[in-house]
Amino acid sequence: MALVDILGYSAGAITSLTFLPQVIKTWKEKSARDISLLMFVIAAINEVIWIAYGALLDNWVIILTNAIVLSMSSVMIYFKLSYR
Amino acid sequence: MALVDILGYSAGAITSLTFLPQVIKTWKEKSARDISLLMFVIAAINEVIWIAYGALLDNWVIILTNAIVLSMSSVMIYFKLSYR
Q1: Which of A22, A79, B4, B20 gives the lowest tally of CB atoms within 10 Å of its CB?
Q2: Cα–Cα distance between A68 and A23 in angstroms, integer?
Q3: Are B21 and A39 a contacting pair at CB < 8 A?
Q4: CATH number for position A56
């Protein structure tokens, strides 16, 4: 596999996990006062656009990566509305 | 421009702005207790990989988008370490 492919797959894999530490922290501490609701709403809308883009290109890496981030963004929106 | 291109450019543009509401909120409120430091450290490392990927592909959309997100992630790491 070429370096460029290794970098691309690594970046995609890490992207899908970026929100995980925030989800775990907020779930444990039941506090989301300092979290921006707008950030995760923008992220969620953006993931839907990325998934549509991936679907049109029939690119399952884009679809799956963004589906994972969309699910975590949705959890953060739920946490923010629940814990405030 | 085809629908797939419009979706791709829209998603890229929105991605670069995702962290902005969090930067503004944290800057205004001077409080980052509920923010996950690990999330923004992972994001920053990931942006560096994305920028290297974009550089190898000579793709300036990838480079610029991720340079903007890297700068915002760096600001959030600074805020988190400053305000706690």
Answers
A1: B4
A2: 12
A3: yes
A4: 1.20.1280.290
